[in-house]
């Protein structure tokens, strides 16, 4: 009896003092990357000239097409499928009765990013205009907590992210689009970073840059400043899709997967992050379902409300592709906070709760 009581006390204590292992979070968004391509790989219907704008069809098929959907998706995003989906969880596969959807009606970027970063839908946010977000993002919430000052950083290819994150009010370190990089381990590295960025064409004008620019400086920032919370927003997938270039869209899905792998592995090689970091990966909206409207998204585009998200880290059971569980984009914000043992509802009571089952 006595032994049993001690055991019970031990179990209770273990439960009460169960600490999260996560001390850092890497949040990555890939703008408008469809769940269809993520879960089933390259779509045959767009691997041609009229529907996909494909320049070299034979090469594209060689690079991205296999008869089997599981082989195809692993070819497109090997880190997501061979590592994240095995060691973590992935939401949004309708074939597993596991839809993930937006709760905002707009199905374009600012409302999507705001939903996933704040956990709420604000009806004032209905355009991509540079409106300083009236709502508190999970990054701003964390930045205001003890232990997070100067430990939250965001890098985005799109200049509107400064406003979505309300850089001015939140005080988060934020660099976007073609802003020169300002932080590196050494002056020589900083000069090299800016020299490479300056060598690239401003293909989309001043408001959006190539993902490699965003990725390179986020990586350098990690090595130099070791932030506890890093948000990396990549967006070329959306640009190439709007341009009806399925070949470039697929290339960037694969390159983005490589960037996430590299950042993750780089972090796992550092004492600050090893075994103490969680990854959250998602998108801001979906796109159309067929060979005509896969390029598009927005309120009128059927299916563009369907999204996906993946979570991996020391506190997340390896359940793989989740079945029979519904998720909303608004759940991402509370998930990021909860992984760090923080409660987003303490600042935003209306925020959606964390994704079900991602925490032990
Ligand atoms: Zn978008």
List the helices and strands and how they pair.
Blueprint: H1 2-16, E1 24-30, H2 35-40, H3 49-52, H4 57-64, H5 69-76, H6 78-87, E2 89-91, E3 100-101, H7 109-118, H8 138-143, E4 152-156, H9 161-164, H10 167-170, E5 173-176, H11 187-198, H12 211-225, E6 229-234, H13 236-242, H14 246-268, E7 277-282, E8 309-312, E9 320-321, E10 327-328, H15 331-339
Parallel strand pairs: 1-6, 1-7, 2-9, 3-10, 4-5, 4-6
Antiparallel strand pairs: 2-8, 7-8
The structure holds zinc ion.
Bound molecules: zinc ion
Give me the CATH superfamily.
Alkaline Phosphatase, subunit A
At CATH level 3, the topology is Alkaline Phosphatase, subunit A
Instruction: Give the strand content.
Output: 5-15%
Structural class: alpha/beta
- What is the CA-atom radius of gyration, in angstroms? 20 Å
Number of strands: 10
Keywords:
alpha/beta; 8-stranded mixed sheet; binds zinc ion
Give an overview of the whole structure.
The protein is α/β, with parallel strands linked by helices and 360 residues long. It has one domain (26-346): Alkaline Phosphatase, subunit A (3-Layer(aba) Sandwich), CATH 3.40.720.10. It contains 15 helices and 10 strands. Strands 5-4-6-1-7-8-2-9 form an 8-stranded mixed β-sheet, sandwiched between helices. The chain has a two-stranded parallel sheet with strand order 3-10. Helix 13 (236-242) runs antiparallel to helix 14 (246-268). The longest helix has 23 residues, at 246-268. 50% of the residues are buried. The protein binds zinc ion. Zinc ion binds next to loops.
